[in-house]
Amino acid sequence: MIFRGAIYLVNRGANSLSFSKQAWVLSIVFRLSYMFDALHTSQPFDASDVVIDTGRLMLRRWRESDAEALYRYASDGRVREMAMWPRHTSVEMSRQVIAEYFMPNPFNFAMVLKATGEPIGCIGLVP
Fold first, then answer.
1. Is the pLDDT of residue 19 over 70?
2. Which of 26, 30, 31, 93 has the most C-beta neighbours closer than 10 Å?
3. In what order do the strands lie in the sheet with 118-124?
């Protein structure tokens, strides 16, 4: 099935992706595309409890409590350029983005560093 989607990968300080990171992103895209295909079936798909676990990261749904972590990296101008987002100017703005854009999209995930439990990026499909 051909689908239209966009992947947003934000990684603090990354100017380019190495081959291994590109392969990792591609594997995540295939996993997410399975969920995306569910949008086009008669059966509703609930992604609210989906967690994708890797050795170092965990992809999970965004929570309003992630606003401070999102603000920490989304207020960086380099991230704004890569993600094509407006630069976040406050924690409240980040909280609003999570509530209005990230949480309503069932295919948008926080990339959480397991060592700290803190979101360090975002990845998802945009139908």
1. no
2. 93
3. 52-53, 57-61, 108-113, 118-124
The pTM assigned to this predicted structure is 0.64
C-alpha 62 chain-centroid distance: 8
The helix (H) or strand (E) run that includes residue 53 is strand 52-53
Asked whether 120 and 73 are in contact (CB, 8 A), the reply is: yes
Please choose, from the candidates 13, 5, 3, 1, the residue with its C-alpha nearest in 3D space to the C-alpha of residue 107.
Answer: 5
Q: How far apart are CA 64 and CA 73, in angstroms?
A: 16
| Bridge partner list, 109 | 61, 123
Burial of residue 101 (CB within 10 Å: 0-12, 13-18, 19+) is middle
